[in-house]
């Protein structure tokens, strides 16, 4: 990525040299070019950081969801085992009927 940023910086500098060559002194072109390269580099890095943060948040949310689902299933299994056999049959019957109606 840093190689890409360096290459983009060189391209911006050359473009600024071509664009401002007749209007301004070389020292002023260099100052303006530096500011433009710095701004574009920071802007690209900030965009990349936002993308990485968004992807990290999504991955963490997915992992947390899986962990919460697993914990819920463990608790549910423990609670179902406390029911009588008849209550378990009714529970599972109700659970399966509810799932079928949703599909």
Task: Report on this structure.
The structure is a single chain. The chain has 103 residues and is an all-alpha fold. It has helices at residues 2-20, 26-81, 85-102. The longest helix is centred in the middle third of the chain and has 56 residues, at 26-81. 0% of the residues are buried. The model has no long low-confidence stretch (mean pLDDT 79).
Please specify the SSE layout and strand pairing:
Layout: H1 2-20, H2 26-81, H3 85-102
Helix pairs in contact: 1-2
Q: In a nutshell, what does this entry contain?
A:
With 103 residues, the protein is mainly alpha-helical.
| Biggest sheet statistics | none
Query: What is the H-and-E element order?
Result: HHH
Uncertain regions spanning at least 5 consecutive residues: none
- Principal-axis shape: rod-shaped
- Counting H and I runs of at least 4 residues, what is the number of helices? 3
How far apart the termini lie comes to: 46 Å
Q: How large, in whole angstroms, is the Cα Rg?
A: 30 Å
**Percentage of residues in helical conformation:** over 70%
**Which structural class do the helices and strands define?**
mainly alpha
Q: What is the residue-mean pLDDT, rounded to a whole number?
A: 79
Tell me the total number of β-strands. 0
